[in-house]
Amino acid sequence: MGRTQMFQYWSYWMLFFFSVLSSVLLVIHGDNSTESSCLLRIKSSLVDPVGVLTNWSPKANMCSWNGLTCSIDQTHVLSLNLSGSGLSGLLSPQFSLLTSLQILDLSMNSLSGPIPPQFGQLQSLKELLLYSNSLSGDVPPEIGLLKGLQVLRIGDNSLTGQVPPHIGNLTELRVLGMAYCQLNGSIPLEIGNLNQLISLDLQKNSLGGLIPQAISGCVELQNFAASNNMLEGEIPPLMGNLQKLQILNLANNSLSGAIPAELRLLSNLKYLNLLGNELSGEIPVELNQLSLLERLDLSRNNLSGTINILTTQMKNIQVLALSDNMLTGTIPGDFCIGSSSLWLLILARNKLSGQFPLELLNCSSLQQLDLSNNDFEGELPPGMDKLENLTDLLLNNNSFSGNLPREIGNLSNLVTFYLFDNGITGGIPVEIGKLQELSVLYLYDNQFSGNIPMELTNCSSLTEIDFFGNHFTGSIPQTIGNLKNLVFLQLRQNDLSGPVPPSLGYCNKIQKLVLADNKLSGTLPATFRFLSDVSLITLYNNSFEGPLPTSLSLLKNLRIINFSHNRFTGSISPLCGSSNLVVLDLTNNSFSGPIPSSLSMSKNLTRLRLAANLLSETIPSELGQLTNLNFIDLSFNNLTGEIPPDLSNCTGLNHLLINNNRITGTIPSWLGTLQGLGELDISCNSFQGKIPVQLGNCSRLLKLSLGGNNLFGEIPYEIGNLTSLNVLSLQKNNLSGSIPSTIQHCKKIYELWLAENFLTGAIPSELGTLTELQVILDLSKNLLSGKIPASLGNLVKLERLNLSYNQLEGDIPPSLGKLTSLHMLNLSNNHFQGQIPSTFSGFPLSSFLGNGKLCGTPLTPCLESNPLEKKPLSNTAVAGVVVAIVFTSTLICLGMIYVMLRIWCNWKNVSIASSDAGSDHKREEEKWVYGEEVMTRNVDYWKVDPLVMAPSTQDKQNPTANCIFHLKVDAETVDHSS
Asked: Where does this polypeptide localize (predicted)?
């Protein structure tokens, strides 16, 4: 509870205490001036800035005081009326001592605090009017004690709580007004006891629940308004019993179900408003029986079916609103035949179809006709001029076609004409110049062609013109300056040509001037200096040229300027004179010279776009004073120097683009303090030094582009903190070291450019977790080594992969075959070997050149190999074979040495022995040495693994080749591939 509220409640209880005390004293002493004393105490509780209560003085007769009416004998106050007296303060409980008071009117003041429950003691009270104050708290149930009360109006306050059921005790009540408060709960059932009630106003509260059926007991009710609450359920059919009802307003609740046909019994009903509910079903045809009905609004419900009301029975209908439903079909043929009073018809945002309903031409009294946002089609009838009283004609968002009929010029009362978003063709008829009352003309998004007629400039009341998105040609009428009341001119996206007429500058009430997307040319007229009220000028996508008039600096109300994509030259200084500037976009012109420091006067500037010009010199430090800047684009200019540290004051920056300039120095670490930075592009400059680790603090960064500079050192691990990153571009620098594995945390990245650096080490397998990579993964022209990680096969969205000009080796992993979205692949100039996967056969030869041991389409076919080559031995198997061969060779050598020794011994013996004996022994020795046993043993040895030891085709051609040598070569090959 705030101090003010505590003071109010404290004051209230103090007043209550003194009231009781004074009452006791008055009874004891028998004071005959009870009511005058009471009124003086009431006066002391009020603040009277106007002095209405000045003559409330003991020196004057009470009955002469302002606002009082006394009894004939002037002893009692019968009426106290201080309505609209500018009073404030609290309601005093002392009022309860005015026992003869019949009327208390304190309405339309600034009284606050609660309604005292002591008001229940005013037994003579017939009218209590406290509306339009600042009263708070609950409605006291003691109000129900006022048995003779006829009028209770306490609305337009800050009262809370429920409508007390004790209200049902006020059986004499004729008017109950509790609208525009903060009451909640439901409408009490006891409301049905008020059988004398004429007016019940509960609008603009927070009442919920159902409308009680008991309300049918209020048989005298003429006005029931409960709009803008939260009532739900169906409208009780018993409301048809309220036959004296003239006004029924249940708009903007949550009522559902069908509109009860019993409402036809409300024969005195003049106003029925059910808009903004959830009513469904068809509009009951029985509503046609409400012959006195003047206004009917069923808009913004879920009603369906056709329009079946407004027949000859509804002779008094003046307003019919059925918009924002799901009504179908066309306008009935007898529509409006019997009614000569209909002046407002709103059928917008339904599903009505067919030609323009000619039946409407019978509604000659129509002033406002809204058929917008339906499915009407066909041409507009020439007979539209029968609706001679029309002031507002809204036909937008349909499918009307054909030409705009010339008869439109006969609608002499027309003020607003909406025809946008249709298919109207041809030109604007010159007869439109007769519409002297025409104020708003919206023809955008049609197929109009031809010139804008000069006669249009005769419509001197025009304030708004919107011709966007048509095919108007020719020039802007030279007499456009006749439209002195013009506030909004939109000619964007047409084919207008030629210069802007100087007379346009004399439309000095213009606030928004939109001439973009045309073929306008020439220089801007000097008369633009007279557009003193203009806040928005967009001229982009034209062919304007030359320097800007220096007098444009006089336009102090400019907030949005977009002159982009023209041929303007010279300085931008004339556009820097408005302190109200919010957006300045001069992209893609030929402006030159420095960026003016005078821009710092525009303290509200949020978007500054000067890209693609010829601006030079340094970025002015004064830009740091523009603390509301969230978008800076100075790219593609000739700017030099360093990024001024003053820009660190622009803490709300979302986009900082200064790429393609000649900026020098290091990347400032304070960029890491820009917590909202979403795009940082400083590429293609002359920055040096390392990438500051503080950039890892920019957690909202979506694009980081630092390529084309002279940066060195490693990519910081903190890059992994940029979890929102979509684009990372670091190519064409001197970065070294390995690609940090922390990049795996950048799960949303879809472009990764790291080419043309000095990065080393293996491609981290963690890159395979970046499954959102789509546009490109470019690691080319680095010093990367090792194999392609198989995990890259997970990048199924990837469209371009470039790993060329590195030192990568091994096979191309088969998992890359899953990259079915690839349309560009470059693996050239590495050390890859083996067969190219068949899924890559459609890529050009250049994708694989520079890899000496790759084969397969589109390179040369791979040669057929023997089974060993198709399935090489493991390192362990090769080592085992080599050991076995060495061991066997050793045994053979030892055996041969032994044989040689024996031969030598035998030879020695032979030389001594006799010839017979020697001859026989020699044959036995030869048999033993060269016989079947030895040969068989040798043959069995070669049969152990004939494939391993078999010479290749090349060996057969070169008999000196050694099998063991070839096995070593194979072993080395296996080592490299493992």
From this structure: Membrane
